[in-house]
Specification:
The protein is of the alpha+beta class. It has a domain of 87 residues: Glutaredoxin. Helix content is 53%, strand content 13%. The protein is elongated and about 55 Å long.
Length: 139
């Protein structure tokens, strides 16, 4: 079979499929980080994940995706890939405009300083309050 000739010696077809499946998952994660203005990797039972969601809930975010890793069958592999992307395997992990922002503590600090709102505005994830006010005066 020509198809099997591309499989390295000593590996099976099921190994090849597993490697392909993991590669596809990693590509999907990379795509989501770039595609969504705000991308959050979280776990349902994690108090830090709940905390970061409370911080983000203060903003009217237009384009956000949340992936609950503990509900994913490939949780461990996904966390391995997050380590490759951000240098950290822990959650929560927040990305804004395709850039890694950090976890709960970093996000809280950025929120307290006003930097989080600026990051969200720059990524067009939220509307500028002054611009909204000006637009509403025309209606």
């Amino acid at each position: 079979m020509i198809f099997c000739s591309s499989i390295s010696k000593g590996s099976s077809l099921s190994d090849w499929y597993e490697q392909r499946r993991i590669r596809d998952m990693e590509r999907r994660m990379d795509y989501d980080i770039r595609r969504y203005k705000v991308m959050l990797y979280s776990k349902t039972y994690c108090k830090y994940s709940r905390g970061i969601k409370q911080i983000l809930a203060k903003y009217d975010i237009q384009d956000m995706k949340v992936v609950e890793l503990d509900l994913e069958p490939d949780m461990e592999k996904m966390q391995d890939h997050l380590r490759d992307v951000s240098g950290s395997r822990t959650v929560p992990q927040l990305y804004i405009g395709g850039k890694y922002i950090g976890g709960h503590e970093e996000t809280r600090e950025k929120d307290d300083s006003g930097e989080l709102e600026k990051l969200l505005l720059r990524a067009y994830a939220i509307r500028h309050p002054r611009r909204e006010k000006r637009l509403s005066s025309f209606v």
